[in-house]
């Protein structure tokens, strides 16, 4: 189908299918955040695309298109089709006025843009996504956007490292306030690496993190609970050790 035909596709009206689309969107987010089973993510996306094709368009068709663009660009290295579907997804977002989902859609869209647009300009879309998320009250996505923006500026060298540290420090405070401890632990590794690069003292291990249930945890407690976060943190530590030629440490973290 042409882009014009897709954008003017019939509207989904079946209440059960509408509910199924919402459940699939939530399932994707749960798998991405907690399970570590990334191989199942695109089975969910495929089902969302199938339902859209068979039953019509709805606001939640927009994240389906954007997530499909992630698969095309990141997994299949099909950059042209990835560019096409991310554009369609963002057009659908505007067409259906997704509201509370806009930050989520823009966040995932930026991942595709990192592959199909110049990196240093594409990363700025994370800031746009963060502002939209904050406006709609989606603080979790706002924090995710801030976390990824900080990582991008660190690895692309597009900002002075002292500016990166300042941004990460402010983001860390917000994450702790909102009790988003998974992203908090992930960003701590990036912050420590940046501090080490500019010769600052690194933040010590944190042992007084309080979650939404009132429990007091340390960083290792959180890593033991959530595989996906542990993998991200160990990769960051491995990369840091590799940069500083600490080969044995790098090997240990790679094995973890």
What is the average per-residue confidence, as pLDDT, rounded to a whole number?
A: 87
Structural class: mainly alpha
Question: What is the approximate shape?
Answer: globular
Alpha carbon gyration radius: 19 Å
Strand content: under 5%
Task: Give the proportion of residues in helices.
Answer: over 70%
Order of helices and strands: HHHHHHHHHHHEEHHH
Main sheet attributes: strand count, strand direction, barrel closure: 2 strands, antiparallel
Question: Could you please describe the fold and organization of this structure?
Answer:
By secondary structure, this protein is mainly α. Helices cover 74% and strands 2% of the residues. It has 14 helices and two strands, in the order H-H-H-H-H-H-H-H-H-H-H-E-E-H-H-H. The chain has helices at residues 3-7, 15-35, 41-55, 61-75, 79-96, 102-116, 119-122, 125-136, 139-156, 161-177, 181-197, 219-225, 227-243, 247-255; strands at residues 209-210, 216-217. Strands 1-2 form a two-stranded antiparallel sheet. A hairpin with a 5-residue loop joins strand 1 and strand 2 (216-217). Helix 10 (161-177) runs antiparallel to helix 11, helix 11 packs parallel to helix 13 (227-243) and helix 13 packs antiparallel against helix 14. The N and C termini lie far apart (45 Å). The model has no long low-confidence stretch (mean pLDDT 87).
């Amino acid at each position: 189908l042409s882009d014009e035909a897709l954008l003017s596709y019939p509207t989904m009206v079946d209440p059960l299918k509408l509910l199924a689309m919402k459940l699939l969107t939530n399932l994707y987010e749960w798998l991405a955040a907690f399970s570590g089973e990334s191989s199942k993510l695109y089975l969910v996306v495929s089902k969302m695309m199938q339902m859209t094709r068979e039953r019509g368009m709805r606001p939640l068709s927009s994240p389906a298109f954007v997530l499909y663009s992630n698969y095309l660009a990141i997994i299949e290295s099909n950059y042209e089709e990835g560019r096409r579907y991310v554009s369609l997804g963002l057009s659908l977002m505007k067409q259906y006025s997704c509201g509370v989902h806009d930050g989520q859609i823009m966040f995932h869209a930026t991942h595709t843009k990192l592959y199909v647009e110049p990196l240093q300009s594409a990363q700025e879309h994370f800031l746009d996504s963060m502002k939209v998320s904050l406006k709609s009250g989606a603080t979790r996505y706002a924090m995710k956007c801030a976390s990824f923006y900080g990582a991008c500026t660190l690895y692309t060298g597009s900002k002075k490292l002292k500016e990166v540290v300042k941004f990460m420090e402010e983001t860390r405070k917000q994450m702790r306030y909102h009790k988003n401890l998974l992203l908090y632990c992930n960003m701590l590794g990036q912050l420590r690496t940046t501090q080490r690069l500019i010769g600052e003292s690194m933040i010590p291990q944190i042992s007084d993190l309080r979650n939404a249930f009132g429990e007091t945890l340390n960083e290792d407690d959180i890593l033991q609970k959530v595989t996906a976060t542990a993998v991200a943190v160990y990769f960051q530590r491995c990369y840091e050790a590799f940069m500083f030629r600490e080969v044995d440490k790098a090997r240990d973290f790679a094995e973890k």
